[in-house]
Amino acid sequence: MPEISSSKPYRIGRSRTGLGLFATRKIKKGTKIIRYFGPLLDSKNKKHDDIDNKYLFEINNRWTIDGSTRKNIARYINHACRPNAESDVSSRKRKVIIRAIKTIQPGEEINYDYGTDYFKIFLKPIGCKCDHCEKKRAKKRAEARAEKLRLKLKAEKRAAKKADKAARKATKAAGKAVTPKAAKKRNPLGAAKANAHARGTGKPTKTKASRTKPLSRVQPKAASRARRAS
After folding, report:
1. Which of 40, 136, 142, 191 is the most exposed place for a label (fewest CB within 10 A)?
2. What is the pLDDT confidence band of residue 214, given thresholds at 50, 70 and 90?
3. How many other β-carbons are positioned within 10 Å of the β-carbon of residue 58?
């Protein structure tokens, strides 16, 4: 890791994406922080045009800075969709300076927007890990968890309501049902006979005693026949 002079307002440190550049003291808005430098590559040179790495900084259609050298401390500055710095490009001087676009507090990571082309080629396939994108993903995860919980509670409420309805229906059905034992207690002589007599349509049942004629009624008739014979 390259050494950095103590007079510089930044240091190399651990970041979410690996290594990053952090402010060691307050950096005011508009301050030139560091120069992005390295060998100049000419697109007209076939050998230069074949060089490919993620530290290439295109100045214009012809000139590109190869910032892969470890002496280029600016190579440690990471991308951010909501950055606190920006790249100030001078095509005429073939020079790139990173300057603050807002006040950067001590300990805060320095970052700038790498541009649309770089984002699509290198960052989009793996997902941008800047603070802004991480917050967006965290928000989406929280919303997904909340929606999942809402649906779960809704399903539980629906199931409880269904079970309660079934229980009320079963209780109502049990109240209407009459067991044979209970029916006997309510109508010992039989429900059908009781109902028939109550409506006045039933016929009284004759007993054996009512079908048998008493002997007291037969004897007088026998005595009368005896008198006539005499």
Report:
1. 142
2. low
3. 16
